[in-house]
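Contributing: when you submit paired examples, paste them exactly as shown. First protein:
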Amino acid sequence: MRRMRTPRWVAWTAALMITGAAAAQGPAAEGASGGDRFVAGGALTIDDPVTGDLIAAGGSIDVDAPVAGDALLMGGRARLGADVAQSVFAAGGQLTVAGRVGRNLRAAGGRVELGPQAQVAGNVTVAGGQVTLRGRIGGHVHIGGGEVLIDGPVAGNVSVGAGRLELGPRARIEGKLRLRSGDEPTLSPQAQVLGGIERLEMPAPGGHGGGPGAERHGFGGGGWLWTVGLMLLAAVLLGLMPRVFGAVAQALQAQPALSVGLGFLVLVATPAAVLVLLLTLIGAPLALLLLAAYLALLPVGYASAGIGLGDWVLRRWRAADAAAPRWRVAAAAAAVLALSLLGRIPFVGGWVGFVALLLGLGALALAARRAVASR
């Protein structure tokens, strides 16, 4: 983010992480520093202009007032109906952009839509199950998704990895279209690709087609060892600390959307905080400790997602055994294995692992917040 000064951004991110869980259960929690604003809650509507950066996390988010800086949005449903002068970073179940974005758009979600009246001056990077781009894009486009529809003008190149790609009648790509897909694209007779279409080879089974982290979670090379290690980690954590990780599982199941948002904040804010501490001589030792804790937390977060999913499945299929330690341990290990198998699916598999990591990290943050609040 070009305008965000790292120390202030880290501070507001940490504040959002602390208040988000409580705010989702009651009135929205808000704060401001200068022109920047952060808000967390269940259902959020931003209807007053923001003169700086906006950071929002909630079950649903509607931005109906202009933002002069960057916008960071995380929610089950997020709609950007106003203009953002700088860049937009968004993650959630359903994301809709209907306004103008002054720089770049980076988004990940189940459904991501750029409306017909929307404009992005810079580049667009999207990962989603269903991606629809109807607005005007002034830069390059990178998409990873299941179903992708482009039905608007793009000034740069377009790179797509998708199960299915469709170009609508309003599609006009001034650069080159690079496509990796198992199916032939559906092209409207009116669609234009001025730079031509380049078909990229599909990744071979066991290759890197599963997206970020797929090889590590897969079964080629050391993939088996990594997967078995995560299964053992989930079993050990649940076996040694059943109450602690029972609370983590409950947080994940009760508030999955908020868990994803908080997980994203943890994933992004911690390295930024390490960088800030390294810039100060007195903070360097603390930075090294924080970095070590962060690296250790990543596999714990992934294992936590397996524990939460395992408990959820167990309660629905074997409710009578849901409290039995051996059944919980077995279900957690099986869930981690299932996530690893899903991670091998081309194009979207890597994002399955990414979302699982966010779920686990966010659930850990929610459980920690509740533990502190209960004391």
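Second protein:
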Amino acid sequence: MSHLTFLEAGVVGLIQGVTELFPVSSLGHNVLIPALIGGSWATDLNVAKPESPYLAFIVGMHVATAIALLIYFWRDWVRIIGGFLTSLGHWQGWHPRVATRDERLAWMIILATIPVGLVGLVAEHAFRVLFGKPILAGVFLIVNGVILYCGEKFRPRASVQADREVAAQRAGTLAATGPGGVPLGTAPAAGPPGPGRGQPGPGQLEPGQQALRQQAEGEQALGYQAVGHQPTAHAGGHQAVREEEISQALASDERLAGIGFTSTVVIGASQILALLAGISRDGVTMVTGMARGLSREDAARFAFLLATPVILAAGVLKVPDLLGPLGNGIRGEILFGSVLSGLGAYVSVRFLVRYFQTRTLYPFALYCFVFGLLSVIYLGVIK
């Protein structure tokens, strides 16, 4: 009879937490790693086996990952859920009002989640049994690498321009000021700056940038007040970093709220591909978002927000597996692995939110292609 050890639970739990948010497919790793190690690992951690205790373990890891995302984005979810409830209180004919940023973002997430939710309910078991084989997971991991590479290499001009605009907005509206009030990172003009030279004076921003800065600062203050905090004039250390993250999140949500509902559904539907072991949910969502003109940073944020309800629902719907016979005798191991999964997910999302502000998908594309290729060679030829 198959079992689950604390070592297996710890290793796989930590890998699950990290790979769930990195665009490298957690399900692909959950299938490949036990097969590559072999022995009892391949028996105990067989995702395609109908009565494997691994299924109960995966439930625990999904719930822990979703909780980690909720903890990191809790301020955002307070706003988004508030927007949803507000929209229900103001109906226009046969549909609720969708006027503010948070109301629109709430309904965007709902619409984007419907396609993958319906397909997952109907076909999740078939996908897992038919495509949950290690050799196929390796093949799909190669495909995932190609998707990430092509998504980055052939980004439309709108996405590249969006990156530039986001960078300019961050530099112009959120940068701290140095001596004399000049924003840090601003190149000094040759000669004395001033209106006569067509340059803003020291400490001054262009009128459009000044308006954006005032809007961002105002929304940051409102964001703090909405959750019972007050903005600080001189924050330091972790609090200063957190304030910057909140301000950037508000600006990102403002941009996301401007995309159409058609693009929202297309981006959300791309998550269906992640039912294939080896295809990353966050990866394909990011690539689709960039293909629809989003900046890399905004595409990543939208992917993380969309992942939260999907992962949580996948875990909650399978809770009977955890509480039923499949979880008997291994709940301690499940708890241990799930805690590590949650910690890994939290650290990963903190890293990735900042990573995608300036960096690309290329390293993940290379990793997926190489790891997938080596896995196929080993499992199909050597082993």
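If you have annotations for the second protein, write them as plain sentences, like these:
The CA atoms of residues 272 and 348 lie 23 Å apart.
The longest helix spans residues 101-131.
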